Amino acid sequence: MSVLGTLVGVVIPYAAAIIFVVGVLYRVFTWSKSVVPFKITTTCGQQKSLPWLNRTFMDRFDSPSTNWETAVRMLMEVFLFRSLWKNVRYELPAQTAVSTKWLWLFALTFHWSLLIVLIRHFRFFLQPVPEFVNFIQSLDGFIEVHIGWFQPHVVHIMITGLTLLVALLYLLYRRLAFPRERTFSLPSDYLALVLLLGVAITGLLMRYVIPVDVAQVKELAQGLLSFHPPASPELHWLFMLHLLFVSALLAYFPFSKLMHSAGILFSPTRNMPNDNRVVRHINPWNYPVKGVDWDEFYEEFKEDMEELEKMGYVVKPEEV
Amino acid sequence: MSKTPLIAVLLIFIGFFFFPYFYNVASGQLGQPIPELEKPKGDHCIEDTKWMNENHMVLLKEWRDHVIRQGIRTYISDTYGTSYNISTYTCFECHQSKANFCDKCHEYTGVKPNCWDCHVYPELLQK
After folding, report:
1. Hey, is A98 helix, strand or coil?
2. How many CA atoms, within 13 angstroms, populate the side-chain half-sphere of residue A174?
3. pLDDT tens digits, one per residue of A19-39
4. How many CA atoms lie within 13 A of A291 on its CB side?
5. Min CA distance, A214 vs chain B (Å)?
6. Contact B5 A271 (CB under 8 A)
7. Mean of the pLDDT values across residues A35-51?
8. A123 burial type by CB count under 10 A (0-12 exposed, 13-18 middle, 19+ buried)
9. What percent of chain A is modeled with pLDDT above 90?
10. Is the whole model's pTM more than 0.90, yes or no?
């Protein structure tokens, strides 16, 4: 157990964390250097134009023309998944586009649950445990139920843990059972879901079925955080499995579609204001154009210029 | 590409992933081990110590339901085979301080049990 304990409890988490940090930073810096040749204006909504063209309230944020409106659009995307809200499915017999919000609902549930679960896990990483973590935990766990077939006693339910599992199961079901979604699903889509399901299921097992000693878990977390890890941590096998899943997820993160968490902020259709008619977008790929100034121009067409002046026209440089 | 997204990502990334490290350094308690508990009286707990570390909350909840809902007042230890009276006072015979025993681990791991909303605890008894 001791060699395995060192490997799973210390070596693999550190390696995964290093891969995660370096990988995410590398991808983010590469993206930030990428060239944006065009302003992407193909957004929804009526863009700001002539005053008699009516715009609805939401047009301001679906096709923003200022920076703060763009920021609001980005925040709506990150926190409310507005793009998924607009999801439609084309129904053939009726030949109409029907609004389908199931993906939006479960995707939103999954992401918010994951965020709250992550914040709840701060109790293992923060010492002393701050009040906001306790507060979120008490809000999350305000339901206490008795389910006879499951446990002989009353159980505190952490709502987000269960919604996380339900949402993940739906996202997997969607890829497996819907014909179109099944067609465009790649192995990497399933891998991300399976890793997340592994994390969620081992975590829920620890909470509801096989309790582990959380004080030891926190001691290991603190040891890892302070770079003085225990030589060979001997913890419950279920926690070790949980840690292994988390490490795998962290190490896989920079190479996978999970990078959409950073990528959303780099999306040109989300982070560029639609202000082509106001601000000129310079294409960095433009080759340098050597201009001609007024004196050179006059010199080149001297005869014509003088003839024009004789005819009574005013010949002078264009005022910029 | 403008640098705004990069700055936003770095702020969120550092804010979330490295926050625990900076927080613990600021509080001066980085790498805190499990706090020392007051050694309880008696030779052993009603079950194996390791099992109690992991399962005491399940046991206490079962005790509560046994007494309140089923009227069972005796508990027979799986490990030692001896019988115990189901009551918080049975715990208090050995664990004579809530502050030096229960609270230390619970504060360390951010657990807030609701036992003491109703039940009396040793410190109150001694007053």
Report:
1. strand
2. 18
3. 999 999 999 999 999 988 888
4. 3
5. 7
6. yes
7. 84
8. buried
9. 60
10. no
For residue B62 the two structure tokens come to: 């079962």
For chain B, the structural domain boundaries read 1-32, 33-126
Q: Considering only CA atoms, which of A32, A33, A70 is closest in space to residue A271?
A: A70
* Placement of tokens 């200022």 in the chain: A66
Domains and CATH numbers, chain A: 2-291 (1.20.950.20), 292-320 (no CATH)
From A34, A137, A153, residue closest to B65, measured CB to CB: A153
Query: pLDDT tens digit string along B82-117?
Result: 999 999 999 988 998 888 899 999 999 999 888 888
Residues 6+ apart with CB under 8 A from A73: A61, A62, A64, A82, A270
Query: A264 and A270 in contact (C-beta within 8 Å)?
Result: yes
- B27 pLDDT above the threshold of 80: yes
Question: In the beta sheet, which residues pair with residue A98?
Answer: A89
CB contact under 8 A, B3 and A32: yes
CB-closest option in A118, A225, A228 to B21 = A225
Query: Alpha helix locations (H) across A63-101?
Result: 67-80, 82-85
